[in-house]
Amino acid sequence: MEHFYLHLPILQVLIPLILAPICIVLGRPTAAWLIAFFASVASLVTALSLLHSVSDGSSLSYHIGGWPPPIGIEYVVDSANAFLLVLVSGISTVVLLYARDQIKFEISLENHTLFYTCYLLCLTGLLGVLITGDVFNVFVFLEISSLSTYVLVAQGAKKDKRALKAAFNYLIMGTIGATFFVIGVGFLYMATGSLNMLDIHERIIDLESSRTVRAAYAFIVIGMGLKLAMFPMHLWMPGAYTYAPSVVTTFLSATATKVSLFVLVRFTFSVFHLEFEFIQEIFKFLIMPLAIIAMFSMSLVAIFQKDIKRMLAYSSIAQIGYMLLGVSLLSEQGLTATFVNLFNHGITKATLFMSLGVLTLHSGGSFLSNLQGIGKRMPWISAPFLIGGLSLVGIPGTAGFISKWMLVQATLEAGIPFLAILIIMSSLLAIVYIWKVIEHIYFMDQATTISAEKVSFRILIPLWILAGSCIYWGFDTSFIVTASDLAASNLLSN
Predict the structure, then answer these.
(1) pTM above the 0.85 mark?
(2) In terms of DSSP bridges, do strands 74-77 and 60-63 run parallel, antiparallel, or are they unpaired?
């Protein structure tokens, strides 16, 4: 049993990777869903086991093929990535419960097995990015995730052909981001002669003045900035989130950008050194101002959107600004706030997109006019959207409030009260666009396009699991805050 336990890091990646092609080989949608769901549950159980094993601040290392690092590829599990492994695999499991019935209406039947295959490949890539200790392996897993994501977004063409254009734009932007990232990795290898993260961290300490090292970090920041939709490199996100099937949007909004942000954080704190002056300058004079601009500009853009999916997409870009602001403080409190925000925004945005997906199906579209009065007709579907909206705004008693409160505390402890004021002001903008939706759902006459078809319990269950999580984690903060604090301290101790 102990021997099996040592192999958990590699199983985290292997299970969905091996089962992915089986889904399409079988050619039966029901069997493919069962396999995908089993893989996701197994990944969640593995992630929880790994999180428990490193809860004391220790780390696990697995050497691929028995080759010790830095020669061989290493998988590393610590309190930072174990926390996100739970988030990604947990969201995946809940989304697959939702997908069982939802994709019947959004994806062509002949593409169902392809959907589950690409879904598992995307999950494999995200988990691999989090767990690998090799910088080139990060690129490999990013591409596994990205290539499968392009296919998933394109599946929305059944309902709207614009999904193909959105997938193509995503492909172009993602390819540019991957190119920048791999060039940065190449510069790192040129400067240090190693691809192992910990080994690079030790070798690079005396290379702060090296132009190669500085160029490496610049390319990595730009590459990951494109991947995580950092303002102003966000142009792919509104289209991808708007025209992709709701199952895909729900999963991506809760996981993909969070993983990309973690990569940027991991490289900043675990590969490079926080003491490097050029890193401090990049965050102080570039990333922090861009984060603040994103918080306000993208919230303002969201206010004027009539398509709710596009509105939530711009909202996600603004929320990424909050997370980057926490990182740019370059403090333990700021990192803790970022990890809290990563987790809470993941479940919040998943709740919103999942609820909206069902409402859209029964109203004929995701425009505000389509959803007029639907709250009275479909209260059990509309209520989770209301809960998710309150959490996004940061109302006390929701998970989103904890995120905003932690970030405000971090700015005050950093001695920058002006940032705390900006956080509160930008949160007020979120009230405006969320209220617009709530007003149409609950306080306007019912639209004629709303169908009376009943919603399956198989959709209600995952939806209310997420909505309940938004409330539960708003009151019981012990797990999220403790795990986030441990993750932050682990990164800063490197």
Answers:
(1) yes
(2) antiparallel
